[in-house]
Amino acid sequence: MHSSFQGLYLVCLFLAFCAVGFCVLGLEASQKSFFFEIQPCLLLLITVILFIGISGDDDFYSGGSFYTNSTDLGRLCSISSQVDVYCPPRKRARICAPFLFGETEFEQNKQPSIDVLPEECLFEIFKRLPGGRERSSCACVSKHWLMLLTSIRKSEYESSKVVKENTDLVSEDVEMISSDEDDGYLTRCLEGKKATDMRLAAVAVGTSGHGGLGKLSIRGSSSSCGVTNFGLSAIARGCPSLKALSLWNIPCVGDEGLSEIAKECHLLEKLDLCQCPLVSNKGLIAIAENCPNLTSLSIESCPKIGNEGLQAIGKLCPKLQSISIKDCPLVGDHGVSSLLASASSVLSKVKLQGLNITDFSLAVIGHYGKSVTNLMLSGLQNVSEKGFWVMGNAQGLQKLASLMITSCWGVTDVSLEAMGKGCTNLKQMCLRRCCFLSDDGLVAFAKSAGSLECLQLEECNRVTQSGIIRVLSNCGLKSLTLVKCLGIKDMSLGAPLSSTCNSLKSLSVRNCPGFGTASLAMVGKLCPQLQHVDLSGLYGITDAGLLPLLESCEAGLVKVNLSGCLNLTDEVVLALTRLHGGTLELLNLDGCRRITDASLVAVADNCVFLSDLDVSRCAITDSGVAALSHAEQLNLQVLSFSGCSGVSNKSMPFLKKLGKTLVGLNLQHCNSISSRTVELLVESLWRCDTLF
């Protein structure tokens, strides 16, 4: 290299370094931090630019100084203005911001010169950042830099390439430990106004150096400024470790964003799409083609997803274990059957709600659902009695343990009996709003399903008290729940009960107005081993009806819920604490307005293991609270006095004493307690979650 050319090259390099230094002086604090972190990369880039600038055509530039004011140049170095300099005239300047050197100080444009670097240069600089911390610092500088960072795939960072090269050199017999950045430990949830593309971009950059994003949930995004395909694409490029994605009510995300997720996030295992009107079969097919590890898929109210997408999922996702489809009008028999008829199907949980499927789909489920353990069918208006009958007789649901059917007209006495015979290992059965089911079908089902343990009936209005008694007498139920069954009427049986149901441990009868005194007495005689009793909403029962049940429970009651039983008095609580105080752990008397302080005195004297007490809207006063606080053996954790107007500021010392063990205290609508008292109480009981 020519000696004069070497000198000029060194001068240009020195001037470039000085210019960068002066530029830094004009940057913001966040930009300065970024500059010092990437200084080696930037200096290397400047050197490359200068090298390229002098390696063009072999043309010589003759005459003239590089500066209009030769005096300014003379202050830095002494170079003759007539020396021939090796310089290609056709090269354009990389940085256009001029620097003017004055006699005492320099002046520069208001815009920092580093901001006018071409995006290609910034892209190359960002690619060479060593880790997540440095990338996060860059992202804080400006939105422009944040957007540039989100355009870089994680695999494009030089640090990722170095790690991969080093991994390839390690012997196969050496056990490798994955880096923290790829494990996907972090969970992020964006809701409402917080769900924007900018926040997703920040999440994509910020999580890469702190364990990696493993689970992302976006709910209720705005259609005007919410999440779009751009934000989801940023997550895809920056978070390849993503394993679970949930999108609820996202109107602006479509196939493009979901395809980016599929393209980059091959570890995806769980996908939940709810009210995503722009997502169609195309996006679902992309997931099927690129995410073979998918184990759980939930689709709700997605009007553009149909059979095509589900067929791809059934064919290309052999590990799929859970599927839930609700209110998707384009989904029919072909889509549902393809999910279950696959030779490699390991589906164990199936939920189908509000779909236009027919008897054919249920026949496929009954024949091919050999791995299904949980099945939920709801609102299948096109499925007839034949469909449920075939599903039971196909003998394929041998592993089915839990079955829930809601609002299906095809459930009749005949089809229910067939399901009982075909599902030999069924343990839990829930029937909601099955209007054609009667006592005969229920009893036949209970007899044929020999493994049945839990039975729940809701709004099955043709089932009567006689059917319930026959079911309890003929099977080994452990739990029975009746909700809003209006067909149950309180009547006494003439003949004595021939057998007892010693297996029943839990009885829940809620909002069944016909279930009264006679029914309670019969249940008490029939089921002497009850431990959990829930009679909430039975406003017709009285002390005389409940006392025989309490006296017949031999095992000792553990949980008792009597909320809304308006006619019960202290006599019931006195008997309950006397007979079962040694086992009682939960007592709910919410809305029993005839319960007074006498009940709390009985609780304080007899209940040893009680941890949850609710006396909301009862006739409780400060005396009752004082009685509770004086109990030595009581160890309450949750206590509710909501709506007890008789509890006043005088109870504060008693509540403080009780608060030593409390984790939850409800004082809502206690109008006799002042705000100041509540504030002092909250300050004192800092470990307790207090509602007021």
Automatic annotation (TrEMBL):
CDD domains attached to this UniProt entry: F-box_AtTIR1-like
PANTHER family: F-BOX PROTEIN YLR352W, PARTNER OF PAIRED, ISOFORM B-RELATED
Keyword Isomerase on entry: no
InterPro entries: F-box-like_dom_sf (IPR036047), F-box_dom (IPR001810), FBXL15_LRR (IPR057207), Leu-rich_rpt_Cys-con_subtyp (IPR006553), LRR_dom_sf (IPR032675)
Domain F-box: 117-159
Keyword check for Transmembrane: yes
GO terms for cellular component: SCF ubiquitin ligase complex
Transmembrane segments: 6-27, 34-54
Organism: Theobroma cacao
Name of the protein described by the UniProt record: Ein3-binding f-box protein 4
Alphabetical GO biological process terms: SCF-dependent proteasomal ubiquitin-dependent protein catabolic process
Top-level taxon of the source organism: Eukaryota
SMART domains: FBOX, LRR_CC
Record key words, sorted: Membrane, Transmembrane, Transmembrane helix
